[in-house]
């Protein structure tokens, strides 16, 4: 994706703060351009919010992606690195929410119904709210499933029924939905409908386009995963980097000067400041705003302190066997309801004798925050109680062998899962992206919070392209040049 300058005047020294996706991609590309790079990382591992937990070290041990777990089929930047790093044979389909007819969905946290049984129930609820109407059955089906997806994914203060308005239904009623219905006719391909008819985004969802996009992205059939977990990507990147990656090195402060950047790092019990020529900061702003920051202008400090991150919590269970298969579920995810929200059924890729993984809970927003504040034992019990109402097989003696989880809103080195700019118009989103990415002297910024695609690996990579362009533009010695002709 980046082209080497044949006449680079001299190698430069660039220090990258953070060994997440953005930091690793930046270091990898800077070295390919002939520059010297080192990475400073506070955690004891690389990958950042890409975190694949393995239940044991034996070959074939089951695993769960506690952070990023999927990418879209049109994420060309991410797929570029998947191919370049030799992982193309590990690309697999990601089966998402309601992808399987046996998946379940909660009805007002009282009972669960199968996807195959849901159309009559969901359209009946919508019709009852509308009263007298003349909408076609396919239009009601579209509106009912869209609300079901909003209810399952968006935090509760975003998923109110007014999202499925008569304005939306009037617009959809003029679209031939037959080509978008699944063979069984149980639900339409919402993602394809909106992709082919963008007036839905710009009309009924004015100001909430990102909410609609994210809900549709998460429920679309156009998703991939990596066999072996998403951490195979970040580990492969780290293995290609020649410069040092210093783990367990906590950044405590950053001071911008005219001729460089001073970074304070805690090593052991001592904090030492060291001057660097160029620094690329990929530290989440939730963590950055807790550091000592000198030499930042007022607007940049405001961006650091005001950028909003959403919490997310995942709880994974290692089970004796994939009991959900006997219950007619081959994969995909259910809407559990309650604090748990979503339950995923990953495929068994390793040794079946070592068990199967159930991602019992995946949630964002206030529900994730509520779970995250519980101590691990209480959190585990809440999840077990809620999921067992949907899957009583969990309570069978010896079914649960192990548990793992991550509350990203409480995790020391993230204090949030991602920047989500829902409820904002396009101009505001762009302004916030620019403010987050804007350099301070020789201090540059990258990460999903600096991109047009927050919460995705693709956004983190996009931000690196922008950051290295900023370096090229601002450095009088022409640090590097990027091939932007995609």
From TrEMBL:
PANTHER family hit by this protein: AMINE OXIDASE, FLAVIN MONOAMINE OXIDASE
Source species: Nonomuraea longicatena
The protein's name: FAD-dependent oxidoreductase
UniProt-listed Gene3D superfamilies: 1.20.1440.240, 3.90.660.10, FAD/NAD(P)-binding domain (3.50.50.60)
InterPro entries registered for this protein in UniProt: Amino_oxidase, FAD/NAD-bd_sf, Flavin_monoamine_oxidase
Pfam families linked to this entry: Amino_oxidase (PF01593)
SUPFAM superfamilies associated with the record: FAD-linked reductases, C-terminal domain, FAD/NAD(P)-binding domain
Gene: inkO
GO biological processes: amino acid catabolic process
Boundaries of every Amine oxidase domain copy: 21-463
Gene Ontology molecular functions: L-amino-acid oxidase activity
């Amino acid at each position: 994706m980046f082209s080497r300058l044949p006449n680079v005047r001299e190698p430069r020294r660039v220090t990258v703060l953070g060994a997440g996706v953005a930091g690793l991609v930046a270091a990898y590309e800077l070295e390919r351009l002939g520059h010297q790079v080192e990475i400073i990382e506070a955690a004891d591992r690389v990958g950042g919010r890409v975190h694949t937990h393995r239940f044991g070290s034996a070959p074939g041990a089951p695993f769960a992606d506690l952070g990023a777990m999927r990418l879209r089929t049109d994420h060309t930047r991410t797929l570029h690195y998947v191919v370049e790093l030799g992982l193309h044979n590990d690309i697999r389909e990601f089966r998402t929410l309601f992808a399987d007819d046996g998946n379940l969905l909660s009805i007002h946290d009282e009972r669960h119904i199968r996807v195959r049984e849901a159309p009559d129930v969901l359209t009946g609820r919508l019709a009852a709210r509308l009263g007298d109407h003349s909408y076609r059955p396919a239009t009601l089906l579209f509106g009912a499933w869209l609300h079901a997806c909003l209810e399952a994914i968006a935090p509760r203060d975003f998923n109110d029924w007014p999202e499925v308005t008569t304005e939306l239904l009037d617009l959809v009623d003029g679209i031939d939905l037959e080509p978008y219905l699944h063979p069984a006719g149980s639900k339409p391909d919402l993602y394809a409908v909106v992709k082919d008819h963008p007036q839905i985004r710009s009309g009924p969802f004015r100001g909430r386009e990102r909410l609609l996009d994210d809900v549709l992205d998460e429920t679309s059939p156009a998703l991939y995963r990596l066999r072996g977990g998403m951490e195979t990507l970040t580990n492969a990147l780290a293995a290609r980097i020649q410069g040092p990656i210093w783990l367990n090195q906590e950044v405590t402060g950053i001071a911008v000067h005219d001729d460089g950047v001073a970074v304070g790092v805690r090593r052991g019990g001592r904090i030492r400041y060291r001057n660097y020529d160029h620094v690329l900061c990929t530290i989440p702003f939730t963590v950055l705003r807790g550091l000592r920051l000198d030499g930042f202008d007022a607007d940049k400090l405001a961006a650091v302190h005001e950028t909003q991150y959403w919490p997310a919590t995942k709880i994974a269970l290692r089970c004796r066997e994939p009991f959900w298969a006997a219950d007619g579920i081959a994969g995909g995810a259910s809407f559990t309801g309650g604090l748990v929200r979503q339950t995923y059924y990953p495929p068994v890729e390793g040794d079946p004798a070592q068990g199967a993984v159930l991602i019992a809970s995946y949630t964002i927003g206030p529900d994730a925050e509520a779970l995250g504040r519980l101590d691990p034992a209480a959190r585990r019990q809440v999840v077990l109680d809620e999921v067992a109402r949907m899957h009583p097989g969990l309570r069978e003696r010896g079914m649960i062998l192990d548990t793992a989880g991550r509350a990203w809103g409480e995790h020391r080195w993230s204090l949030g899962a991602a920047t989500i700019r829902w409820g904002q118009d396009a101009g505001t989103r762009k302004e916030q992206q620019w403010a987050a990415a804007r350099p301070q002297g020789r201090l540059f910024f990258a990460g999903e919070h600096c991109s047009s695609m927050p919460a995705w690996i693709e956004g983190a990579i996009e931000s690196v392209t922008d950051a290295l362009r900023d370096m090229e533009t601002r450095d009088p010695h022409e640090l590097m040049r990027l091939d932007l002709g995609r």
